[in-house]
Design a protein that fits this description.
Length: about 525
Amino acid sequence: MIDPLDEAPKGIAEGCSATKQPRRLRVGASWSAKHGGLPTAAKACNIICGIVLVITDGLVLTLAIWLATMLRDTLAQSIPQIGSAEGFGVMHYLRAWWLIPVWLSVHAFEGLYNHRYTLWDEIRTLWKAGTVAAFALFGLVGLGRMSAGVERSTVAILWGSSLILMPLLRTSVKRLFRVIHLWEKDVLVIGAGETGVRVARAVARDLVLGYRVVAFVDDDQSRLKRPIWLSRVRPVPVLGKVSDAAELLRKGVARDVILAIPSLPEEKVVELVNELQPHAETIRVVPRLSSMPMMDMRIDRFLRDQLFMLSVGNSLAKPWNRWFKRGIDLVLGGVGALLMLPVLGLVSVLVKLDSPGPVLYVHDRIGRYGKTFRCLKFRSMYVDGDSKLADFFDRNPGARNEWDKYKKLKSSDPRVTSVGHMLRRWSIDEFPQLFNVLKGDMSLVGARPYLPREWEDMGLLRDTVLATKPGMTGLWQVSGKNDIPFDERVKLEAWYTRNWSLWLDLTIMIRTVRTVLMREGAY
């Protein structure tokens, strides 16, 4: 990976120097000077995107209503409790025009047409808005005046289908907007250090958010002479010092600002925000609280005293959350175990034919609160794997460093069998852990089940990581897996424990599917 502060190739670096602004920036400056504020083209883009999103949501709801109607009438043939088996024609429900405005009004109230969300926050907000809209429709149907014959079963199916269709199509439209540069919004990042570069890369990767980092400012003189590489093809210049930020905004370089210097004193942060606010649409501040839990963080405001507090909850301390998580484990784990039975049988035969030894590898792992349990996996190693590993270290002394850093051998592990390589590549070796989930030793999502020999290596974060059950998948598995050093892995899983929520679990499960299919982090 190219270091963000490496020198750019000659020619490109000269074209992005602090003294020569890219053409896009100069055009933005002329727009601002001519119109005395935001570029007219930018305002037009906002209006166009908002109108298209409203139309898209309306079409998605129309499709969802049609699917709900078809499914409801089909189910009514065999389940009379759902409603009249005679059903209604599709046009009957399309004439119920009030369904769509009610739904879109909730979307507007949640800021889905004028706020920019990250991908997962967008999905969460869509689900929240869809659920609120469905309950509103249930109430209107119950009143009977505006229902026009629409039944509650149809609304329930409409809600379920919208949870899938709405995020899928809406985010696809936003990605298309980004490709054609209609959804892009220029942003200036204050701070070109490690935090600033990490934030810039994060927002650049999120196509749904739509931010385009066009410049940095930083007081470190050494960073003013060379651009920062957010990708292999697009260097971003450092255009000046932090004190130059307001002037750059006035010239139209960007419309939004990200303040990414966590070490900046509080007085300076307040002063800088007050200075920049008249010239920016939105200012986002990265606070010096990166290690604090944030998934359940809430702001309490005291308007009379001009104060606010950050309220940080502990979701794991609430018994109903643990019960709900356990219920999800039992339902999804049970369904998964039944569906996987044919696969488990086939893999058992392959493991047995590939090398001598048992089909399952049963070993002790550290569970919740440090209690050990017997973890199940398909055997992917030779029975005499430890002796093979010792011989390998004798022949390859350099491999010991990789083992000490990752607690794994990513390149060539002599212990792994031929079938074992295939099982690990697709994470099939972990399928038997579904039975650990059903037993209650593990969860579908959690920290990695650590080995007893890794007890001391977990360090001060051990108690935090072990506050929840280990999982079949987790934040480590979807964040790079074997590319992440051991100590960073422990930090990731401590962050997961502190920020645990049902939404985070759902996000990780969805990302796990992509990780397995793309074989990210597999070895």
